[in-house]
């Protein structure tokens, strides 16, 4: 600034003093670039940018260096060319579907799935004239049987929520290729540590980064990974739809990701130990965990996954109220929705996710009154097992 700084007013000094001196420091960690917009040095630089001769920041909705770092880290973890972060998992999913589907087209989803995804597809997308078929989970034949001439997209979680069905990715890709249909996997429950669907030829993979990727129950974010061209298209649409991740959340995500592999190894160990313990317990009617031989998806899961995660669903030999009493008797897990964080969480889906639904309707989609969803954290395995054992005593 040419003028003597002290001759400037208090407001001008408050805004500008020191600000132009910042330099890249020698910090180990990526800074939080808390900015909503980016400076152009001259009209010529702006013109160079507009004509594609230089790459730089333009405006916060079109990118942020902290966010970009998190995107690149996740892309590498999931063997992808590129990744794009969104404000939440649902924001990633809804923006992705709005970007690739058009009125008059048809998509296929599975019955066992995140309830909000299901609501978006069968509620909102139908309102825009997009036809939706809902098929049973983990069953490529059921998917193929639902294919119509205007089918453009197959979307499934793998594993699904809450029953943890796993789709045979190789078969799914074969069917999709034959019918020229795009495939999207919500891989949240596996996370890139346990499977990389892109390696099987899946087009796009979505994660709720709120869960295992961030891993500390302290932020919401979503991510989509895939080929650079498709992620570019999503970036274009993000500039319009606006569901960006805040740089502070991106920083927390980056921090959480550094311990991702260590955390996942413990989540896998805890999930597997809990599932085996529960399956052997007389008060437990059924356990859903793809690592167990009794799970219908076990063979497929073993063939394409490296581990099976921390989420275990099970039905007790109990009423709705007794199931609540069991959950209340647990001392280590918090009672809260979500999964994938360092703290174990537990919930009764009939109450947390389906309370408004009539019991008959709930039962029809398999959500029984005694269903428990236990998301094992990274606590010591023995402590979690001892706690579950003591809590099961309330069932007599
Ligand atoms: C949590 C979750 C979502 C939604 O993600 P948010 O980050 O909560 O918006 C979508 N799919 C699955 C499988 C999830 O577990």
TrEMBL record:
The keyword Metal-binding does not apply. The keyword Zinc does not apply. InterPro entries: CGS1/2 (IPR044639), Cys/Met-Metab_PyrdxlP-dep_enz (IPR000277), Cys_met_metab_PP (IPR054542), PyrdxlP-dep_Trfase (IPR015424), PyrdxlP-dep_Trfase_major (IPR015421), PyrdxlP-dep_Trfase_small (IPR015422). GO terms for molecular function: cystathionine gamma-synthase activity; pyridoxal phosphate binding. GO terms for biological process: methionine biosynthetic process; transsulfuration. It comes from the Bacteria. It holds the Pfam family Cys_Met_Meta_PP. Its cofactor is pyridoxal 5'-phosphate. Keywords: Pyridoxal phosphate. The modification N6-(pyridoxal phosphate)lysine is found at residue 211. Residues 1-20 are annotated as: Disordered. Signal peptide: none annotated. Transmembrane segments: none annotated. PANTHER family: CYSTATHIONINE GAMMA-SYNTHASE, CYSTATHIONINE GAMMA-SYNTHASE 1, CHLOROPLASTIC-RELATED. Belongs to the trans-sulfuration enzymes family. This is Cystathionine gamma-synthase. It comes from Entotheonella factor.
């Amino acid at each position: 600034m040419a003028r003597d700084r002290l001759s400037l007013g208090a407001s001008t000094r408050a805004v500008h003093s020191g600000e132009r001196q910042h330099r890249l420091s020698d910090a180990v960690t990526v800074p939080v670039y808390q900015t909503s917009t980016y400076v152009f040095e001259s009209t010529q630089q702006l013109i160079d940018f507009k004509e594609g001769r230089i790459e730089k920041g333009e405006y916060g909705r079109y990118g942020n260096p902290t966010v970009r770092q998190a995107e690149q880290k996740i892309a590498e973890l999931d063997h992808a060319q590129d990744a794009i972060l969104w404000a939440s998992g649902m924001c990633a999913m809804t923006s992705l579907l709005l970007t690739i589907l058009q009125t008059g087209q048809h998509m296929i989803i599975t019955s066992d799935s995140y309830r909000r995804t299901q609501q978006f597809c069968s509620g909102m997308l139908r309102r825009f004239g997009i036809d939706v078929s809902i098929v049973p989970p983990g069953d490529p034949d059921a998917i193929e049987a639902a294919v119509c001439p205007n089918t453009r997209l197959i979307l499934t979680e793998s594993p699904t929520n809450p029953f943890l069905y796993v789709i045979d990715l190789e078969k799914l890709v074969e069917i999709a290729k034959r019918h020229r249909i795009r495939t999207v996997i919500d891989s949240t429950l596996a996370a890139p540590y346990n499977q990389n669907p892109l390696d099987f030829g899946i087009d796009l993979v979505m994660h709720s980064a709120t869960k295992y990727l961030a891993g500390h129950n302290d932020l919401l974010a979503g991510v989509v990974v895939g080929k650079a061209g498709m992620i570019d298209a999503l970036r274009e649409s993000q500039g319009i739809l606006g569901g960006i991740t805040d740089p502070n959340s991106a920083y927390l995500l980056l921090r959480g990701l550094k311990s991702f592999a260590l955390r996942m190894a413990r989540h896998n160990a805890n999930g597997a130990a809990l599932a085996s313990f529960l399956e052997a317990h007389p008060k437990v009617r059924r356990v859903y965990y793809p690592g167990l031989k009794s799970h219908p998806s076990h063979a497929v899961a073993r063939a394409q996954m490296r581990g099976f995660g921390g989420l275990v669903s099970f039905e007790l030999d109990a009423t709705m109220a007794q199931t609540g009493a069991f959950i209340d008797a647990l001392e280590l897990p918090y009672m809260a929705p979500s999964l994938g964080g360092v703290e174990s969480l537990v919930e009764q889906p009939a109450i947390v996710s389906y309370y408004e639904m009539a019991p008959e309707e709930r039962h029809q989609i398999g959500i029984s009154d005694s269903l428990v969803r236990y998301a094992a954290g990274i606590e010591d395995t023995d402590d979690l097992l001892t706690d579950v054992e003591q809590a099961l005593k309330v069932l007599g």
